[in-house]
Write a structure and sequence with these properties.
By secondary structure, this protein is of the alpha+beta class. Helices cover 28% and strands 30% of the residues. It has one domain. The protein has a 6-stranded antiparallel beta sheet. The protein is globular, with a radius of gyration of 18 Å. The two termini are 31 Å apart. It contains 6 helices and 6 strands; from the N terminus they run αβαβαβαβββαα. The longest helix has 15 residues.
Length: 176
C-alpha cells in the first residue's frame, strides 16, 4: 500500500463532497462503513471526481456495533476508513443551564438540528466533516480535535484493530 500524505480533514472533505452528491437527505437509518482508496492526492485536495475510490463495506443500525464488528477489520485493506452517520445535534453552551442541557438528548433539544457526519481515519489520523440539513451548502470540518465515545471508537477501529491472519496448514508444517 502506498504511503499517502494527504491530511485526514482534506480527505474527509473530498469524501463528504462525493457522498453529498450521491446521498439523498440527512435521514440514513443505519450507519455506514466505507473503504477509501486514494487514486490521486492532488485531485482529492480539489474535490475532483475520480480522485478516490469509495467502496461500501457494511452498515448497521448502531454505529458502535458497526465499528466493533470483527468484519469491519477488512477496512484495513484500504488507505482509509470512512464512517457515515446521521442524527441530531444540539448546541453546547458554557452558561448556568449546562446541567439541564447535558441531560436533554439532542433529539429532544428545542434547538436541535439534523446532521450528517463523515469521519475519516487512516494512518495519518482522523478528520471529520459535518453538514446540517438546514444549511446544506455549508460544511464544518474538524482536523482531529473531536473527543468522545464516537471519536474513540473510530480511532480504536483503525489503530487497535486486531488482524487475524489465517495460516495455511502447509506453512505451519514447514515451520516444524
Amino acid at each position: 500500500m502506498t504511503q499517502h500524505t494527504i491530511s485526514p480533514v482534506t480527505l474527509a472533505t473530498c469524501v463528504e463532497h462525493s457522498l453529498h452528491i450521491s446521498l439523498d437527505g440527512f435521514d440514513l437509518s443505519r450507519a455506514r462503513l466505507y473503504g477509501i482508496s486514494i487514486v490521486d492526492e492532488e485531485a482529492a485536495a480539489r474535490n475532483e471526481d475520480g480522485a478516490l475510490r469509495i467502496t461500501f463495506l457494511a452498515e448497521h443500525g448502531d454505529v458502535y456495533e458497526l465499528l466493533e464488528a470483527q468484519t469491519s477489520a477488512i477496512v484495513r485493506m484500504f488507505d482509509a476508513a470512512v464512517v457515515l452517520t446521521c442524527g441530531w445535534a444540539a448546541p453546547i453552551r458554557d452558561d448556568e443551564d449546562e446541567d439541564e442541557e447535558l441531560s436533554t438528548p439532542p433529539s429532544q433539544h428545542p434547538e436541535r438540528r439534523r446532521v450528517r457526519l463523515v469521519v475519516v481515519v487512516g494512518d495519518c489520523g482522523v478528520g471529520s466533516v459535518l453538514r446540517f440539513a438546514d444549511t446544506p451548502n455549508d460544511v464544518v470540518t474538524d482536523a482531529g480535535a473531536a473527543r468522545g465515545s464516537l471519536a474513540d471508537a473510530v480511532t480504536n477501529m483503525w489503530f487497535d484493530c486486531p488482524v487475524n491472519v489465517a495460516q495455511n496448514p502447509a506453512d505451519s508444517a514447514m515451520q516444524e
